């Protein structure tokens, strides 16, 4: 799977979890600043990622990813 494909799916996961329009989310979107910090939304997004890519992302670690692109890089490294 390519990085671009991962970013596309992360954008969809973020849109669903945070209730945002996917067209306004890019790989440079700052997760905390632009999407939100609610833990339930982060858990929902983490669960989608873990189910799709079979990687584990502890909630505390999820908060350290600044952008969607940073999260994609982590997934690429874990696959």
Give the arrangement of secondary structure elements.
Elements: H1 3-18, H2 31-35, H3 39-53, H4 59-62, H5 68-78
Helix pairs in contact: 1-3, 1-5
Helix percentage: 55-70%
CATH class: Mainly Alpha
- The helix/strand class is mainly alpha
CATH architecture: Orthogonal Bundle
Quote the distance from N terminus to C terminus. 9 Å
Corresponding CATH superfamily: ACP-like
Low-confidence stretches: none
How many distinct folded domains? 1
> What order do the helices and strands follow?
HHHHH
Q: Largest sheet at a glance?
A: none
Beta-strand percent range: under 5%
CATH topology title? Non-ribosomal Peptide Synthetase Peptidyl Carrier Protein, Chain A
Shape: globular
**Individual helix count:** 5
Question: What descriptive keywords fit this protein?
Answer:
79 residues; mainly alpha; 5 helices; 65% helix
What does this 3D model show about the protein?
With 79 residues, the protein is mainly alpha-helical. It has a single domain (3-78), classed as ACP-like (Non-ribosomal Peptide Synthetase Peptidyl Carrier Protein, Chain A), CATH 1.10.1200.10. It has helices at residues 3-18, 31-35, 39-53, 59-62, 68-78. The model has no long low-confidence stretch (mean pLDDT 92).
């Amino acid at each position: 799977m390519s990085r671009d494909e991962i970013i596309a799916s992360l954008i969809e996961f973020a849109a669903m979890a945070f209730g945002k329009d996917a067209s306004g989310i890019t790989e440079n979107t700052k997760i905390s600043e632009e999407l939100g910090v609610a833990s339930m939304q982060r858990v929902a997004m983490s669960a989608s990622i873990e189910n799709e890519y079979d990687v584990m992302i502890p909630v505390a670690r999820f908060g350290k990813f600044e952008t969607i692109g940073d999260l994609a890089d982590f997934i690429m490294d874990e696959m």
